[in-house]
């Protein structure tokens, strides 16, 4: 419960809020749109068309605009299908879930505008919202009450730091100077993270299997690894550079070394094969689609301006590629801070954060001068057996 208290995105709508620093997460939602739409229409036709009500859960909704973006997209897909079938749209019951200390108020304050936009649409169904606070690594909803479950940019967060890495255990001293898996992490550390991910995902699937009706669908998008091997720099650079910034500060006496040695991120980015294996072993769901894709600040620019290649060409002619990458680094640093600030503040104290993320941004600038500013993601669609 203590981890749940600090594992929350920055609240409100200010400069450092998650609401203003979740552009990449919005692009991930956009990139998974076709898979999500196909799955939710199938869920409606199979599990909800005869009842007149569609129950939809978004797990890890957080506090920015992305939750309602997903909801609007889901309802539009079903309403288009109903129009083609010449049948009335269903009532939508939308259940927004996140941990207890999530800023649900920011989401609900945007509902009047959401409803006004809906009123301008022809033949739209009524929608009713509920907040469901709690961990999705446990039961959240009544049995067989959901037709569709969605989660984006959430399931890479573990229920806890692996027990083997918590203070006092023999393995906990093996990852000194690191905050997550790295290319130098010993096998015991890698295995601890993999075991925790497998336990958590099995529990997640078992709980959802009790809540989703037969034939219901689930679409999950989360960060993944390009490489089957753990600790590759291209898959861990966000954490590696954060550890480097912290260690630089420790060398100057600004952070206690033992504080770094006792911080391990409750995070795991699986490979596609690891994800598939757990789903198949647990057995409640069958995978219908699974795809890897890249998302990053180039994708954000492409999303707003219509073509990475075209704009990269213009930038090269103007000699501005480096400036673009510097901009991406600053925005990525802000995005990471919006996600991790509460957790880092709880462990290291608030006083180091400005300096830490200044240095982190500089390290990202250097990294992005030679590498694309992106991270790997996987989207998987499943049907309840």
UniProtKB/TrEMBL annotation:
PANTHER family named in the record: S-ADENOSYL-L-METHIONINE:CARBOXYL METHYLTRANSFERASE FAMILY PROTEIN
Cited Pfam families:
Methyltransf_7 (PF03492)
Presence of the UniProt keyword Metal-binding in the record: yes
Q: Which SUPFAM superfamilies match?
A: S-adenosyl-L-methionine-dependent methyltransferases (SSF53335)
GO molecular function term, any single one: metal ion binding
Q: What is this protein called?
A: (wild Malaysian banana) hypothetical protein
Keywords from the UniProt entry? Magnesium, Metal-binding
This protein's species is Musa acuminata subsp. malaccensis
Superkingdom in the source lineage: Eukaryota
Q: Which GO terms describe its biological process?
A: methylation
């Amino acid at each position: 419960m203590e981890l749940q208290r600090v594992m929350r995105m920055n609240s409100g709508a200010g400069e450092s809020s998650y609401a203003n620093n979740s552009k990449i997460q919005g692009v991930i939602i956009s990139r998974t749109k076709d898979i999500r739409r196909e799955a939710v229409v199938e869920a409606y036709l199979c599990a909800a068309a005869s009842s007149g009500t569609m129950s939809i859960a978004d797990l890890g909704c957080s506090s920015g605009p992305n939750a309602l973006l997903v909801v609007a997209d889901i309802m539009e897909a079903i309403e288009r299908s109903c129009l083609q079938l010449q049948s009335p749209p269903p009532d939508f019951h939308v259940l927004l879930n996140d941990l207890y200390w999530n800023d649900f108020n920011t989401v609900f304050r945007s509902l009047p505008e959401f409803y006004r936009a809906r009123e301008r649409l022809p033949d739209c169904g009524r929608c009713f919202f509920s907040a469901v606070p709690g961990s999705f690594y446990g039961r959240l909803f009544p049995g067989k009450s959901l037709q569709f479950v969605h989660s984006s940019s959430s399931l890479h967060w573990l229920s806890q730091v692996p027990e083997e890495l918590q203070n006092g255990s023999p393995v906990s001293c093996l990852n000194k100077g690191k905050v997550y898996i790295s290319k130098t992490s010993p096998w015991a550390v890698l295995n601890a993270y993999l075991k925790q991910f497998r336990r958590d995902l099995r529990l997640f699937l078992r709980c959802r299997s009790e809540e989703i009706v037969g034939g219901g669908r689930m679409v999950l998008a989360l960060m993944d690894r390009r490489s089957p091997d753990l600790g590759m720099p291209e898959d861990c650079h966000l954490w590696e550079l954060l550890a480097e910034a912290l260690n630089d500060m420790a060398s100057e006496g600004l952070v206690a070394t033992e504080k770094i040695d006792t911080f391990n991120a409750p995070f795991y980015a699986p490979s596609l094969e690891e994800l598939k294996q757990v789903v198949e072993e647990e057995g409640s769901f069958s995978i219908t689609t699974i795809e890897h894709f890249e998302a990053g600040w180039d994708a954000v620019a492409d999303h707003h301006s219509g073509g990475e290649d075209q704009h990269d060409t213009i930038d090269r002619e103007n000699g501005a590629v480096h400036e673009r990458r510097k901009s991406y680094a600053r925005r990525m640093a802000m995005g990471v801070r919006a996600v991790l600030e509460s957790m880092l503040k709880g462990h290291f104290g608030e006083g180091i954060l400005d300096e830490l993320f200044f240095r982190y941004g500089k390290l990202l600038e250097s990294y992005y001068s030679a590498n694309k500013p992106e991270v790997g993601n996987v989207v998987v669609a499943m049907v309840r057996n």
